Amino acid sequence: MIPRSVSLLFFLLFLVPEIATVSALIMARPNCAETCGNISIPFPFGIGTGCYMNNWFSVDCNETTAGSPSRAFLSSINMEVLEISLEDSTVRVYSPIISSGCAGRGANLAINMTKSPFAFSSSNIFTAMGCNNLALLNGIEPEIVGCTSTCGANNLTSNSSAEGKENSYCSGNNCCQTTIPSSLQVFNASLGTPDHPINDQGRNECKVAFIVEEEWFRNNISSPEVVKDMQYVPVILDWDMYYGTDIPEGVKNSDAKSCSRGSTTWGSTTWGLSTVTYSNSTTCWCFPGYDGNPYLPDGCTGMIRTRLM
């Protein structure tokens, strides 16, 4: 009979290779940087020639002042990257605030991601602030999307404190919100005063509009005062790869990974269409019990819990 201590030793030795595999997951292509500052850059995104799927996923890693981490930018749409999620097929970036009549603010920047694999996620919300602010999204005709904020006790130039967090104040007075169209790829906004406002205030006062990650807004913006000096806010972008030549070489349906190609059948499983409006789009993920990068050949690795089941 094998002593209990010996059995335990063999059991631990059995786990060691699996532990090493999980801790050494490869997320980028060989000889490519896996991070930029504090941001992980997994393939199909990449820094430098040969490290990304195509030009849409190219990331510029820009050095900053001494003591500050480098900053990552999607070079195709010039938006700063905050986080990339392979599991959710999303990238968190900074999006500009558009303003009118606000002293000291820079030039307004519009976002146009048409024909790219990126689109604003439904987890974002369109927000406008200011006294008698009629804010409309441009470039989405024939749709008309926008909202109107009236003049309450506080405005963007007041020093009054907030009534509280959780969006309680953003219900019409100096702040309004509305949902954005599905798979929106353009952000530009016009700001003005309604034709027949409740009162005649706010015509020359500071007005702003922006698309923002709704959860972040609820947790971080307690009053219009917080926003008036900001230039950017975080948003979530959905992303997909196109069906066809964009499928990474060596990536195929297997026991450890799966790639959805529109409504195409791979093996014995049929995968549904992606939620993004691009036809024949592609999304990959590791099956439960595996971890890693499904966009790399053999990128999904079995985890400890799978071996113990």
How would you describe what is shown here?
The chain has 309 residues and is mainly β. 12% of the residues lie in helices and 31% in strands. The chain is built from four helices and 24 strands. The strands form eight sheets. A six-stranded antiparallel sheet has the order 3-4-5-6-17-9, with no helix packed on it. It has a four-stranded antiparallel sheet with strand order 7-16-10-13. It is elongated and about 65 Å long. The C terminus is likely disordered.
Q: What is the CA-atom radius of gyration, in angstroms? A: 24 Å
Structural class: mainly beta
List how many beta strands DSSP finds.
24
What is the distance, rounded to the nearest whole angstrom, between the alpha carbons of the first and last residues?
25 Å
Number of helices: 4
Q: Give start-end ranges of low-pLDDT stretches.
A: 8-14, 16-23, 157-167, 261-279, 304-309
* N-to-C SSE string, H for helix and E for strand: HEEEEEEEEEEEEEEEEHHEEEEEEEEH
Q: Judging from the principal axes of the Cα atoms, what is the shape?
A: elongated
The whole-number mean of residue pLDDT values reads 77
Largest sheet: 6 strands, antiparallel
Beta-strand percentage range: 25-35%
- In order across it, which strands form the biggest sheet? 3-4-5-6-17-9
Determine the fraction of residues in helical runs and give it as a percent range.
10-25%
Write out key terms for the chains shown:
309 residues, mainly beta, six-stranded antiparallel β-sheet, four-stranded antiparallel β-sheet, 4 helices, 31% strand
